[in-house]
């Protein structure tokens, strides 16, 4: 797919608007947006593999957790500097995830989803019982070094990460590799018949997904300054990542960003009325209705509306 000048103008406009937000909204709103930025990174990471190739993963926090725990252990227990521990965490995520998940890439459909879910549950149990002196056991770890302080600095840090990840993935997906990955999701047998190596393409998608997940997990834990297995490997976390990608618009890069912001603000505005887990049922219902109305997500609703406006003008 070719690149057009207006694509870059749109990206520049989006980035410019987002960088001006601290002047327009309160610090409380900025803190909400920070979590939306991180959720967008995780949703993009999930979409690279599952949205493009159709290999739906229910255990994405497995990858996020490897990156988060690696850098947390290195900085907390061994006094590694952040600028060294985060790249190591990304590398460990890619290698560790590859060793474990590579056999699963030959499995299709619901079996792949169940295996990834099992991996997430496995690492959840392991970090609690294996070397709790390193992982912190069930309590996790607190007092981790942070990348920045304050809502404004945290916002710019998370925004920069999200923009770099999103723009890089967008560029990759507009190459022949991106087209081939999307083709796998539509008809894997046809891709095989064209002479392309489906295994290599899926491996590339997984490594890219793992790299983003590891980076996002590592930076997220150093934004919070703490890590807890119960929060990181919670089923609601998995659900939120997947729903953000789907209702925003899978296989579009910008769609997971839209979905992440929509869900984050929806959950936050429901909090005063439903402070417990009940609000997940509400947003699940809203997500289901949106998905039934437009299976291609909010991005497609916006795109179709823009086409109608242009046709009328």
The amount of helix comes to: over 70%
Main structural class: mainly alpha
Low-confidence segments, given as residue ranges, are: none
| Order of the strands making up the biggest sheet | 1-2
Strand content: under 5%
What string gives the helices and strands in order?
HHHHHHEHHHHEHHHHH
Radius of gyration: 19 Å
Count of folded domains: 1
| Count of helix runs | 15
Major β-sheet annotation: 2 strands, antiparallel
Terminal CA distance: 26 Å
Number of strands: 2
Any idea what the shape is? globular
Q: Quick check: average pLDDT? A: 90
Q: Describe the oligomeric state of these chains in a short phrase.
A: single chain
What would you note in describing this structure?
- The chain has 313 residues and is mostly helical.
- It has one domain.
- 76% of the residues lie in helices and 1% in strands.
- It contains 15 helices and two strands.
- Strands 1-2 form a two-stranded antiparallel ribbon.
- Helix 3 runs antiparallel to helix 4, helix 3 (61-77) packs across helix 10 (198-224) and helix 8 crosses helix 10.
- It is globular.
- The model has no long low-confidence stretch (mean pLDDT 90).
Topology at a glance:
Elements: H1 5-20, H2 27-53, H3 61-77, H4 82-101, H5 109-129, H6 132-135, E1 141-142, H7 151-173, H8 176-186, H9 188-193, H10 198-224, E2 226-227, H11 229-232, H12 235-249, H13 254-270, H14 278-293, H15 298-312
Antiparallel strand pairs: 1-2
Helix pairs in contact: 1-7, 2-7, 2-8, 2-10, 2-12, 2-13, 3-4, 3-5, 3-10, 4-10, 7-10, 8-10, 12-13, 12-14, 13-14
